[in-house]
Specification:
BirA Bifunctional Protein, domain 2; three-stranded antiparallel sheet; 15 strands
Length: about 400
């Protein structure tokens, strides 16, 4: 018996082959040019060798820090909704139920940190994001619709409860700013460990690609987004801030972005909320790591690109729910009664997650973990570091590509 999905795939391959024939080429020539030549190339060999050292070095650093490896979650009832344009969230129907594919494992990471003995988790997270192609069909360089991310979440264990959140803002701010610094230092050390392994083992590969890596010992510079926007405007902000520092690595902090990235102070005891538009960057506790590459010959640098996004996370049920409402991810607040979610049908896939987020212990204290976390895009980092005479687009650091602006059909 034929599988209907494979019947459809066979038909679309037939149409694609006909189009290739009409262009004066052939399927064999297309595969040879766009796939086989890449797989056989010295450049891809060097990239893969560097990738192996980079990922291994970071993972070993996470193990040394006491974090535990988490299984991949590739389909669930809930995934990261994202705050930028994607075409849609793919779905999988199984046993009469509908699931969504993973944009990122953010909610899975939170739940995995519930165990009090767990210091944190890391996972080679699946990420399927059907990025909207560029309007002009131009190569955007940095995007893949199916990519690898080393995803990390770390417990903070501060014990800050809702009364503290409302009534002790100065003390809570002090805690959050200390943890914000700790989070950036944590990811710097992870990143530095990966690059140190590359410098130990892959100097010949870097030389063959015509690039170099300078790894500073000092903490990376930090720019606040609102201050950078005041100087440069929105367009090309990463590149323009990168031009202000000699460091090849730097942070941009305070990007109003995802619903789970902490903003504080946000909720008031009387039920009112601070206007989202009023938040300066210092009250938005997230960060992007940006990277500039360096050409071996002449020492010129390539424009900065963002490679890692992270944040301190919202951890109390009340602001978690408020942020989901403000971002229009759920239309109404959950109603819990006697262990039931009375309006579960209105909450999409968020009902079970919010039930866990709202749990309290016998003393009425929230049990949801306080964490910070982030994810580093592996292909995006390699592209940012290795651009030069051999590497141009992000597809050049992959075996299989999948940039939304490249091919009408991904064959492998």
């Amino acid at each position: 018996m034929h599988d209907s999905a494979y019947d459809q795939i066979g038909e679309q391959l037939s149409h694609f082959q006909s189009a290739v024939d009409m262009s004066g080429s052939s399927m064999a020539h297309f595969i040879e040019r766009h796939y086989v030549e890449r797989w056989k190339s010295d450049a891809l060999y060097h990239v893969m060798a560097i990738r192996t050292s980079f990922v291994t070095g970071m993972q070993e650093a996470l193990v040394r820090a006491g974090l535990l490896n988490l299984e991949r979650v590739q389909m669930s009832l809930v995934t990261d909704p994202l705050n930028h344009d994607v075409e849609h969230t793919p779905t999988i129907d199984y046993k009469g139920q509908r699931y969504v594919t993973t944009h990122s494992m953010i909610y899975s990471k939170f739940l995995a940190c519930l165990g009090p003995r767990i210091q944190g988790v890391w996972v080679d997270s699946p990420n399927i994001r059907l990025e909207v192609p560029s309007p002009d069909g131009g190569q955007r360089g940095r995007y893949l619709i199916d990519f690898s991310q080393l995803d990390v979440e770390v417990r903070r264990n501060r014990g800050v409860q809702l009364d503290d959140y409302y009534d002790r803002p100065d003390e809570v701010r002090e805690i959050l700013r200390a943890d914000f610094e700790r989070a950036m230092r944590f990811f710097e050390e992870m990143f530095r460990a990966g690059l140190s392994r590359v410098l130990e083992r892959n100097e010949g590969d870097l030389e063959a690609l015509g690039v170099a890596i300078d790894l500073p010992d000092d903490p990376f510079p930090v720019f606040r987004l609102d201050e950078g926007l005041a100087r440069h405007g929105r367009s090309g902000i990463e590149e323009k801030l990168g031009a202000e520092t000699e460091s090849p690595f730097f942070w941009i902090g305070g990007l109003m972005r995802e619903n789970y990235d902490l903003i504080y102070p946000y909720l008031n005891r009387d039920g009112t909320r601070r206007e989202i538009a009023s938040f300066p960057s210092r009250d938005v506790y997230n960060f992007d790591l940006c990277v500039k590459g360096k050409l071996r010959r002449g020492g010129a640098v390539t424009p900065a690109r963002e490679v890692l996004s992270g944040a301190i996370r919202e951890w109390l049920a009340e602001p978690i729910i408020a942020r989901l409402l403000d971002n229009r991810i759920i239309p109404t607040a959950p109603v819990f009664r006697d262990g039931r979610i009375e309006n579960i049908d209105e909450l999409g896939g968020y009902g079970p997650f919010l039930l866990v987020a709202s749990r309290t212990d016998a003393e009425g204290r929230s049990t949801f973990p306080e964490t910070f976390g982030g994810g580093i895009g592996i292909e995006r980092t390699l592209w940012a570091l290795l651009r030069g005479p051999e590497i141009e687009s992000i597809e050049d650091v992959t075996c299989f590509g999948k940039n939304p602006d490249t091919h009408p059909l991904y064959l492998f």
